[in-house]
Amino acid sequence: MRSTALGLAALLAACGVAAAEPAARSGTYDSLTLAVSGDAVAGVFSEQRGAADAGGPQFACVFLLRGTIAGDRAKVETWFPNEPERIPGDLAFTPDGAALTVAEDHDGCSMTTGTMVGTPYALSQRAAAQDGWIGVGLVTAERTAFRPEPGPAPARAPYLVRLDPVAVLERRDAWVRVRYRGEKAPVIGWLPAANLAVVMP
């Protein structure tokens, strides 16, 4: 049976039938959350090391990105929220996920991810590709609580903290409905748009 499968794969390759090219799709790729719309992509990269509450050092590699897709690659610009400097980069979609390269490392990245300069930083897709993501966001408030609908937060509600990444599902006036990947399961709810830096493809 194994030899038959191998023979079929070899036959398909010989006939010029190759595996499908990696597709640019919205989803979570390790520390990178991407929203794809047509030939445009928006993303947020957020990776942290060390536990601040344990008294140890806390390092963070965090930035937003936006770019234009051509095939399975995108030229992107990356930046930290509210900072004018833009660092160019390349995003490639791979069979296993994605790979990111930047012209210059953002602050904190050498202490967390290691350099992304020169050598593509490989990112595995954590789950099936997602539909319906219209953008991405990075929490900029110290703390923001989920709401079932726009309005005051319930007394006891799950919350996010500064530098948490989210996927944006919907915008309504000064509110955004987001999806946070969560430790055990995704959390979906409404947050004030003022508490996030939002990037749309």
Structure overview:
This protein has one helix and 15 strands. Helices cover 6% and strands 45% of the residues. By secondary structure, the protein is mostly beta strands. It has two domains: 27-124, no CATH class; 135-199, SH3 Domains (SH3 type barrels, Roll).
Net shape: globular
Instruction: Determine the N-to-C terminus distance.
Output: 46 Å
Query: How many strands, which pairing sense, and closed or not: the largest β-sheet?
Result: 8 strands, antiparallel
Q: Radius of gyration, Cα only, in angstroms?
A: 19 Å
Q: Fraction of residues in helices?
A: under 10%
Strand order of the largest sheet: 1-2-3-4-5-6-7-8
**Count of strand segments:** 15
Strand content: 35-45%
Q: What is the overall number of helices?
A: 1
Descriptive terms for the model:
about 200 residues, mainly beta, SH3 type barrels, 2 domains, 8-stranded antiparallel beta sheet, 5-stranded antiparallel beta sheet, 1 helix, about 5% helix, globular, disordered N terminus
Structure, briefly:
The protein is mostly beta strands and 201 residues long. It is 6% helix and 45% strand.
Note the topology:
Blueprint: H1 2-14, E1 27-29, E2 32-37, E3 40-49, E4 59-70, E5 73-79, E6 87-93, E7 97-102, E8 121-124, E9 135-139, E10 143-145, E11 159-161, E12 165-172, E13 175-180, E14 187-192, E15 196-199
Antiparallel strand pairs: 1-2, 2-3, 3-4, 4-5, 5-6, 6-7, 7-8, 9-12, 9-15, 10-11, 12-13, 13-14
